[in-house]
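TASK: fixed-backbone design
INPUT:
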């Protein structure tokens, strides 16, 4: 990585950022009429930051985490989930999903590990939304901006939620904010992994580091740099192309289901409740 790329600044002002996210969380809960939150706690830094922000905004008594290991999950992940819960004083419920996955695939042979990972992510979200229905707790997402832009998540699995406080934080910013909020170091600094199979790491699967791609994405997405400008900074053309392709291929994951327009006002196209009906006489 050359000096021009390495010097791209993604630093945040932690007190200001936490203040903005706290206000966001409180406003969302008030507007939606909820007092309690539920989220999956994987033992990774993203869900740990979600726990820290929610405990700060709502109070730990209003936050429940579900730890949902699969058969292929690293036992250390569950230990880290317990550590995060105890650090921030939230309730943690352990609900293994290995049996659900086994029953789902039944006697089918030679199931590829991506299908197993997708099933695990969707069963976890079923658990979370079932808890939400039973206990009236809002489901909180913990996918960061890097993952959302690259499509690195399971559609209607870990990408599903009611609100996502982490959605405008790049992965490197998640690390910084988690460290500032007191997430245990062993959680913040361990290799990021979706825990899909033994030895799996996010960066190993992606083929590049979060530090590299966050710098590229911040210029490409937030500052509208041209491809030529990115090349002049020292980003390799193949890397730029791969990231652009990932963003394009995963656009469907960032959108509501596509609806054909047949009427005067179509949901998701030109009817938006807050804009259309806000302030109408009751």
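OUTPUT:
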């Amino acid at each position: 990585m050359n000096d021009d790329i390495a010097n791209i600044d993604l630093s945040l002002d932690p007190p200001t950022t936490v203040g903005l996210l706290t206000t966001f969380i409180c406003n969302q809960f008030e507007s939606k009429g909820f007092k309690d939150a539920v989220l999956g706690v994987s033992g990774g830094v993203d869900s740990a930051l979600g726990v820290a922000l929610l405990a700060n905004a709502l109070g730990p008594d209003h936050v429940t985490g579900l730890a949902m290991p699969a058969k292929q999950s690293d036992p250390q992940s569950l230990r880290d989930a317990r550590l995060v819960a105890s650090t921030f004083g939230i309730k943690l419920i352990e609900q293994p999903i290995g049996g659900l996955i086994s029953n789902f695939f039944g006697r089918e042979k030679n199931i590829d590990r991506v299908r197993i990972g997708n099933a695990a992510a969707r069963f976890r979200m079923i658990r979370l939304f079932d808890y939400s229905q039973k206990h009236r707790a809002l489901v909180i997402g913990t996918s960061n901006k890097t993952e959302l832009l690259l499509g690195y998540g399971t559609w209607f699995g870990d990408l599903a939620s009611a609100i996502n406080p982490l959605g405008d934080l790049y992965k490197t910013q998640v690390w910084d904010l988690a460290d500032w909020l007191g997430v245990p170091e062993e959680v913040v600094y361990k290799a990021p992994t979706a825990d899909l199979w033994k030895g799996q790491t996010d960066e190993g699967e992606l083929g590049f580091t979060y530090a590299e791609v966050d710098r590229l994405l911040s210029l490409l997405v937030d500052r509208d740099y041209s491809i030529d400008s990115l090349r002049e900074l020292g980003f390799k053309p193949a890397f730029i192309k791969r990231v652009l392709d990932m963003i394009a291929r995963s656009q469907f994951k960032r959108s509501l289901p596509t609806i054909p327009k047949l009427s005067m006002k179509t949901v998701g196209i030109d009817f938006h409740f807050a804009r259309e009906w806000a302030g109408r006489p009751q």
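COMMENT: The domain at 3-254 is CATH 3.40.50.620 (Rossmann fold).
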